[in-house]
Amino acid sequence: FLDVYDCIRRGSYPAVLRGLALAARALPEPRPRELLQQLCAQVQGGARPHLCQLLAVRSLFSGSLLALNRLQVDHVRALSQVLFLTPHLPAFFLRHRLRSHVLEIRHLDRALLRLGLGQLSEEELRAACYLRGLNSTHLGQAECRAWLEQWLRLSCELRGT
């Protein structure tokens, strides 16, 4: 079932990236706009961005056109589908549920940082990856641990924004 759910989740990714690329075009400053457009094109081409590339555009997601409360409704719906939240609600509720879900993941990230990934069983490790968007059914435990370590580093860096 995880593969089926992952296929549904991946079906929403193009809409999320299209919404992000569209919003990027409206950014007033050329350098951040170009960085985000390059990042979107890279991901649409199948590449995985490096942590430094993601951190380079993080400021765009707070207080700008890319803040959650300013995203287009279609973009918020697509993001909701990625997290398996129902997209069939008014925009206010969609944003509220999305914000609440992301906050829950951030709290879980803090707990994982304090606990340490070495304390997780293989099943817990895979569940943690899946909750954050990685289908770990075809990955080894070491790959899951490495991905989750990268995720936690990014989450820790983003906490300040």
Explain the overall architecture.
There is one protein chain. This protein has helices spanning 2-25, 30-44, 51-56, 73-82, 91-115, 122-131, 141-158. The protein is built from seven helices and no strands. It is mainly α. The model has no long low-confidence stretch (mean pLDDT 88). Helix 1 (2-25) packs antiparallel against helix 4 (73-82) and helix 4 crosses helix 5. The chain has one domain (1-157).
Task: List key phrases describing it.
161 residues, globular
Secondary structure: elements and pairs:
Elements: H1 2-25, H2 30-44, H3 51-56, H4 73-82, H5 91-115, H6 122-131, H7 141-158
Helix pairs in contact: 1-2, 1-4, 4-5, 6-7
Short synopsis of the structure:
This protein is an all-alpha fold and 161 residues long.
Structural class of the secondary structure composition? mainly alpha
SSE ordering: HHHHHHH
In whole angstroms, the N-to-C terminal distance is 36 Å
Helix tally equals: 7
Uncertain stretches of 5 or more adjacent residues:
none
Instruction: Identify the quaternary structure here.
Output: single chain
Number of DSSP strand runs: 0
Largest sheet: none
Provide the gyration radius in Å.
16 Å
Strand content: under 5%
Percent of residues in helices comes to 55-70%
Overall outline: globular
How many domains make up the coordinates? 1
The averaged pLDDT comes out at: 88
InterPro entries: LETM1-like_RBD, LETM1/MDM38-like
Protein name: LTMD1 protein
Keywords: Membrane, Mitochondrion, Mitochondrion inner membrane, Transmembrane, Transmembrane helix
GO biological process, one term: intracellular monoatomic cation homeostasis
